[in-house]
Amino acid sequence: MYMLSSMYSRAPPQRIDSKWLAINIDKAADWNAKLIINGVIRPFYTVLVCLHVVMKRLKKYYDRRGIH
Q1: CA separation for the pair 34, 31 (Å, rounded)
Q2: 3-48, pLDDT tens digit by residue?
Q3: Who wins on pLDDT, 16 or 61?
Q4: What are the φ/ψ torsions at residue 44 (nearest 5 degrees)?
Q5: What is the pLDDT of residue 53?
Q6: Phi, psi torsion values for 55, nearest 5 degrees
Q7: Signed CA dihedral, 19, 20, 21, 25: sign only
Q8: pTM, rounded to two decimals
Q9: Which of 32, 31, 28, 9 lies closest to 20, judged by CA?
Q10: pLDDT score of 67 more than 70
């Protein structure tokens, strides 16, 4: 914890370029969108596909056994 604070106190004050900041915000927004797609939509889609396959298998199994 002490090392971190001393590191920050030694760092020179940086002037933030507004254009650079805007580009970085764009990148961050893009990355967040990718994160949401990968973290939420893809697993949800995978679960849906798995359920679909399981239902098809169950239907086949029940149709073969004659249980409706």
Answers
A1: 5
A2: 555 545 555 555 656 676 677 777 877 878 888 878 888 888 889 9
A3: 61
A4: -60, -45
A5: 94
A6: -65, -40
A7: positive
A8: 0.42
A9: 28
A10: no
Task: Look up residue 54 and give its two tokens.
Answer: 């399981």
Residue 62 contacts by C-beta under 8 Å, 6 or more apart in sequence? 68
Tokens 């239902």 sit at which residue? 55
Tokens 């915000």, residue located: 25
- Encoded tokens for 68: 């409706």
CA distances to 41, 57, 58 from 63, in Å: 32, 10, 8
Return the structure tokens found at 6.
């001393």
What six digits make up the tokens of 23?
Answer: 């580009």
What angle (nearest 5°) sits at the alpha carbon of residue 56, between those of residues 62 and 52? Answer: 140
